[in-house]
Amino acid sequence: MAGGKRTLASLLARWETILVFIFIAVIVFNSVASPYFLNPTNLLDTTFSFVEKGLIALAMTLGIIMGDIDISVAGIIALASLVMGALSSIGAGPAALVAAGLGTGLAAGFLNGLLATGFGIPMIAVTIGGISLFRGIAYAALGDQAFTKYPPAFAFLGQGYIPGTPVPFELLVFVVFAVLFIVLLHRTTFGRRVYAIGNNPVAARFSGVRVQRTRLAVSCITGFMAGLASVLLTSRIGSTRPNIAEGWEMEVITTVVLGGVAITGGRGKMGGVILGIFLLGFLKFGMGLINVPGDVQNIFSGVLLILAILLPGLVARRQEAAGLRKTRDT
Amino acid sequence: MIRLLKRRETTLILIIAVMLAAISARAPGFLKLGNLRDILTDTAILVIVSIGQMMVIITGGADLSVSSGIALCGMSVALLNWMVPGIPLPVIVALAIVIGFVLGSINGLLVSVAGIPPIITTLATLGIYRGAVFLESGGQWVSAHKMSEAFREFPHNAPLGISNLLLAAVLVAVAAAVFIRFTRTGREIYGAGGNRAAARFVGISLARIDYLVYAISGTLVGLAGLLWVSRYASAQNDTARGFELQTIAACVIGGVSMLGGSGSLVGVILGALFLGIVNNALPVIGLSPFFQMAIQGFVILTAIIVNSVVDRRTQAALLRTRKL
What we know:
The complex is a heterodimer. By secondary structure, chain A is mainly alpha-helical. Chain A is built from 15 helices and no strands.
């Protein structure tokens, strides 16, 4: 197949193609559910509801391809939001808040990475502890209280539009980072190392890849992106409660897997994930249009997560079987 | 003697003893018999679910869906009890357990037959089961006055001298001890989690074991769901939210390796008791209950680090004993 002509059948079987079809179906469904959906201004506004998760999904893609799943990202959001709220209550300005949010995320990611690489513990096990610790600190500090005082200028990040356009500033941030991550994964040696580790960490080590250092870097990137999501989310809703972003880890992982990244690592493309982000975002928005409650939406996310893992496996198995038949015939 | 001192169980008993002494120094009433019994009662459900969780973790997986499973089983039987109050209690208990078994079997099939990684499977069903609670309840609570007297009294009744709640935990612990120590299948669980390739070569059916541990975990979740809603006399959409982390914490504190292959029942029970004591002691020593989650996270991370250091030492020691 490599280098050969792309037949229509192989194009149709590609996961990204399937995604495009589902995507179109979702758009059609939404525009039937609400006549206002397809209006460009409204369409741009819907992106507020999912670009923050999308930003984390970009980083999570690196992690999952490499075989490290960070399930503490939502906890990091809570912790970063707590730090920003605390600083804001003593009068810090917008720039300091942004720096604090990003810094907290980076620090939390660094801690996860240090524990995972330093003690040889699987990332998923470390971050099970991280979920409790990060969000727990927010609960311990806030209890049933909330930070709600943020400077007016801070609100622009999560609520503002690019001046003179109906394009949300959040969307611009997302587009910039999406391009950065495409380049990082598909055009740099760092990206190649991520794939190499995901396919076979031992072989990667023997080929001179600094496995632990790369894992630590990806963990820091993931923390940083969770911090960035926290900055935007906190700015958008203008408050910090300990239960902020609860359950986001499942949606983010679902998005990445839906985007065609193999949950076992080694395979996946950033383009597919970006498609997945918009697909799941519009799907959830559509469910909101017909008043499906959040807990029930999670049924869809959960089922989708399972299907997104099962279906490509089945397709691959059929293609393999077809390939075997072909070699036997010749 | 030195070997006994080196064991996780001994360390935990010492830590728990020191902790109890320190707490009772600040609050003399804490060590009273009545309060200790309350702690045991509070911890019974955690012990039951953690035992299932332990078997799953020993195979190298984790069951994140236990909290939603508890809510779904609990809500199902609470709704049934409300709609049809005449159904005898033994039937309700059996039904809760069957529902739990079915939920666990779904996890088990997805992991063993479909080959989806355990944490992803149970992260998905964590969301699905929680959503199902909302679907069947329509967002409503089943509160105390909607439950029959027999239903509410069940966990507190003590026909055998100790409350049914404690009795259930003791029975589950004894059955689990016999199962993992003395049956072939029970031993195979450890084999399946250690070295999977080796396990297959000695004839262990990995698919069967992988399915079984989730089914067992689900069955215990069913029992726990019934006990939870009847004990607190309330079934809600939020029932047991976040509880999965407590069960994993109990296991990790008890010395169960997240890599699979090792872990002891006594350790897990002590780990659960440790958490139970901490939770009960927070108000006594003047900390808000909101500190519970952060302490739990800190303890999980500490325990995971200790476990990994211990694992490495044992392996290094094993290598040394091997004469070349």
